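Researcher: For the annotation table, I need structure tokens for Replication initiation protein. Please keep the output clean. Sequence:
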Amino acid sequence: MDDSRIDMDKLSGALRRETVKKNVAAIHISGKLSLLQRKLSNVLLLNAYDALTTAQSHTIDARTLATIVGYNSNDFDTLRASLRALAETVAEWDMLDEQGKQEWGVSSLLSFAKLKGGVCEYAYSPALAQKLHDPKIYALINVHIQRNFSSGHGLALYENCYRFVRTGSTGWWNLETFRKLMGVDGSSYYESFKHLNAKIIKPSVAEVNKSSDILIEPGFRKKGRAVTDIRFLVRENPQMAMFQIDDGDGVRNLKTYKLLRGQGVSDRLARQWIAEHGEDYVQEKLNYMSGQDQIKSSVGYLSAALRDDYKPTTRVEPTQISPEAMEARMLRDAQRSREDADFEARQAERAERANQLNIVEMLVSRRNPTQRDADKQLFMTGLTDDLDRESFRSQGWRSGLNANAIIAFWKDLEPEAFDGEPE
């Protein structure tokens, strides 16, 4: 991560209140890391998030980790170097606690990391883990979004603007602060606003607007003729929903997901429940809960209902069931079985497509810039629909509308890459 700053809001209740009491908090991540190292840090935190404050260390398959981030899955030298860089990166916070007392702290971003037997094990210091274990931090780490970025500066700007999407503006940053956020402080070249604007601001703004779920617009404040401060107006990107691929297997578009969110279930937990139990099962528990009275916590009740398979109690004796009713029940059960099979087939299809697109991403990362441009031009010649072309311009090889065509294109180019696990 190039220098980044993440506001830490104190969230309470079910995270659904329109207004929450906020503390003054910020975590500053020092160190000038590459784009892939920044992505690696995000994926590690994402993997550890649920057990961040309860487990002393966390593990992830090293080959899987490398593939997700974008490394060659056999390039353990680069992975080791990146983990070393994260362990050498300093995180510093300066905040008010719940009693209004000032707290300052410093910690390495990773307290340790090791690779053994094809597994990556790593840990955060307890103090930093407490600061990072915040749902707002998790919401910022969107692996589907970060895959779209090709520069560390663009991803850094996205991360520092995303948290202001509800307020609509980042507020004014002096240029010294902005240079730190972008990881270019200490560079005499970027002391010149002309160079900063041409090489950092304009390209990063363009990448955020092209590759993410927000749109940003820079504004400048001057003293005389010299620019002294910068801010960004931030709003949601209305086109992103159209162009994002699957957005967590398309879960966020499901009625069940929206009902869960309406009950105060977090985005992460809603998607996790649907992935683990299936849409129909979760919907069944939602329906069951709707008939219950005096529920203190919807989230807690749903969690128990899913875990223990809450079902309505029935007092109908077998002798009271008519042959017609029995036949109707059997037909319903058969229909449910077919629906379950269809759902599993769709899940398997989505998983396979996601795996193939990961292979595409790996293949693209191996090409040099000239080859990448040629590949894009060649693929574009085969797109005749304006919406498909716009989707590809916006999302590139992660274009959901063109997923099948993209996979077919790369299978023609490098068929051997899809025969088995990518090397």
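Researcher: And a one-line annotation?
Model: The domain at 1-141 is CATH 1.10.10 (Arc Repressor Mutant, subunit A).
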